[in-house]
Amino acid sequence: MTRRLRPTRQVDLDFLVSAPLRLVFAADAAAPPDAVHTALAKDTAGWTAWFDAVTAAVPTATGRAVGLRGGIRFEETVLADEPPRRFAYRVDATNAPGLRALLEEWALSPTAAGGTRVRWTFAADGPPALRAFLLMSRPGLGLSFRSAVRSLDRRLAS
Predict the structure, then answer these.
(1) Which of 23, 131, 132, 144 is least surrounded by Cβ atoms within 10 Å, i.e. has the fewest?
(2) Average of pLDDT values for 118-129?
């Protein structure tokens, strides 16, 4: 049975600093920031090809609808699309239990070698049990992120 989506709190970019839970991950890609930003912000459907956790990604009028492994779904609004340095979005509705607010930012900066330093900030709010679960999931989220950046880099190189 698919759980219905329920609205989340409508946070803004300040939530990246004020969120009760912030997880930040970073990895380097050989591809330049322009190419990485285009893949993140413009090739919505392409996310399923490089981010294993993403099973569906469809553009909408204000952002996108995303499905994850395990049946979690999000309706998102893009809050920042600043090529080639930043892409950020807020979850407006989800079926994830307990999630009150979620904002994700992908910050991109050039590396000395001509590639991209990708920093992913996962800012969330929910009851203490959800925050504890997300903290315990940090190693897995980090592994998933690093794997996704490697996969994206391979995709951009081909």
Answers:
(1) 132
(2) 98
Phi-psi region of 98 (alpha: psi -120 to 50; beta: other; left: phi over 0): left
What gap in Å lies between CA 65 and CA 63, rounded to an integer?
7
Q: 47 and 54 in contact (C-beta within 8 Å)? A: yes
Is residue 50 pLDDT above 90, yes or no? Answer: yes
Q: Report whether pLDDT(134) > 70.
A: yes
Q: If we measure between CA atoms, which residue out of 121, 120, 105 comes closest to residue 29?
A: 120
Two structure tokens written together for 130 = 């959800």
- State pTM to two decimals: 0.95
The pLDDT, as a whole number, for residue 2 is 57
Q: Could you tell me the two tokens for 5?
A: 């989506």
Cβ neighbours of residue 101 closer than 8 Å, sequence gap 6 or more: 8, 9, 11, 15, 19, 90, 91, 123, 124, 125, 126
Residues 141/62/64/39 CA torsion (nearest 10 deg): -70
* pLDDT at res. 1: 46
To which residue do tokens 């969330």 refer? 124
Distance in angstroms (rounded) separating the CA atoms of residues 87 and 145: 15
Q: What is the pLDDT of residue 3?
A: 76
